[in-house]
Fold this sequence. Notes:
This protein is α+β, with helices and mostly antiparallel strands. Helices cover 65% and strands 13% of the residues. Strands 2-1-3-4 form a 4-stranded mixed β-sheet. A hairpin with a 2-residue loop joins strand 3 and strand 4.
Amino acid sequence: xxxxxxxxxxxxxxxxxxxxxxxxxxxxxxxxEEVFADVKLLNESFKASRELRVxxxxxxxxxxxxxxxxxxxxxxxxxxxxxxFIVLMTNKGREQFLSEIAESxxxxxxxIKNITPVTITxxxxxxxxxxxxxxxxxxxxxxxDAIQLTESIDESLLGGFILLYGDKQIDSSVRSSLQKLHNxxxxxxxxxxxx
Length: 195
């Protein structure tokens, strides 16, 4: 196992443990939905700002400065439970894991609530009827109750869509079809069959 994968594995374990603790605390206080909304805000902020992630992971910047910035960014926007958690993580020197903790919290919350995250990536924005049809078919096929939908645009798909849910993928993009056609044409056995 490489040094990078060992660090990622360790980071995942730490994040998972702290996320579980935050979920348990939020449930105990009857604030799970409130804390979930806070964590979604944190997660979106970390995803949107590479600078924030790098800042929190920097060993050169002290915890006081990090806490000052986190307070300015989030304290007025999050619940008391989440605010105290951020302070605790920073005081323990675990602020570098806040991004991973937020991701792990959302995964664990989805498991508790039986929510399946679904991502639809298409070349152009799909209309509501198409999305509803895709999700309806997915619900029936996989017996999914609740869906958390994320839509994204990737013009390189050329057309069609890619549907990700759980650890599965349905790729009906034009790019994928063209790649399959290319592989088929490049395969000598295809040429021999035709001749």
